[in-house]
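Why do we care about 3D structure at all? Because function follows from shape, and shape follows, mostly, from sequence. That is the central idea of this module. The next example makes it concrete: a single protein chain, its amino acid sequence, and then its structure expressed as tokens.
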Amino acid sequence: MASLEGFGITAKVLSSDQTKKQRDEIYADLRMVSPSICMLYVTPELIATEYFQNVLLRLYNRSKLKLFVVDEV
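And the structure:
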């Protein structure tokens, strides 16, 4: 992700391995009027939660969700 940030792209990872504080910081950013996160990698177990799906819906309703890709190996 450091290489993406070198191009000015703010990328973050959201996973259950993170602390609640780390996840809360990401969710707080996504609730901002203009989120700084441009690319978010999310683990499958978090995508399946109602909370995360509501986050996506709010981003979409505010025209802040440009692309959604699922890459499950």
